[in-house]
Description:
mainly alpha, Phosphatidylinositol 3-kinase Catalytic Subunit, Chain A, Domain 5
Amino acid sequence: MLAEGIETLNDFFINYYGKHVDKARKRFCRSLAAYSLICYFLQIKDRHNANILLHKDGHIAHIDFGFFFTKAPGGKLEVDVPFKLVSEYVEVLGGQHSGLFQEFRKLFYK
């Protein structure tokens, strides 16, 4: 647990961004689409919450490129899927049926 009442990335968004959470989620959505495409094209497979930073306005930034520039610890990294979307990111967007998730899909496939 990060702090009292914060157990998920969505909890963090609600607590940190407060009344500006909708704007932060939109920025997160747009930057997540770009981040996801870059990771897909460059085949950066090591995507999880320990490898990201959030800008104070909600944009996402990847911070650990060790598996991209070198081999994974213990050998080569094998991931069976070409694209990984962490469930906590979908939760921040409001779930698979939300407007923000649909915007993410539209930006990703555009």
